[in-house]
Amino acid sequence: AAGARTVAWLRTTGCDVGSDGDGSGSAAPVQPGSWSTSELPCRTSASGTGAPAVELHECFLGPAASPAVVARTLFSALREADARGADAVLVEGVAEIGEGLAVMNRLRKAAAAVVAVAAGEDVA
What we know:
- The protein has 124 residues and is an alpha/beta fold.
- Helix content is 23%, strand content 19%.
- The protein has 2 helices and 4 strands; from the N terminus they run E-E-E-H-E-H.
- The chain has helices at residues 67-83, 99-110; strands at residues 5-11, 35-40, 54-60, 88-91.
- The chain has a 4-stranded mixed sheet, with helices on one face.
């Protein structure tokens, strides 16, 4: 969409791995490194002006409980986000234990900014 911001969201949660959402488990598992694209509508402010739509590219890095899988997927996902022209890249963190410590250390070194957000917290 014209004027849309492009955001890559590298996820470790919310991908319903092995489930089609109804609990039957009939859908194929989401594979680490798989991408999906959607467009989010404009957010309208109180003044009635809207921000541009956001083109959202989501990539499932692997389960947060498996930082080794996340580590193997991370760098190719970052390269793909760059290839898709992402204006911003959001990465869900993993526990900083074992291989997770290396993953989070590398992300901090690569980041222009780090914003820690607790689950359920609203980001303005």
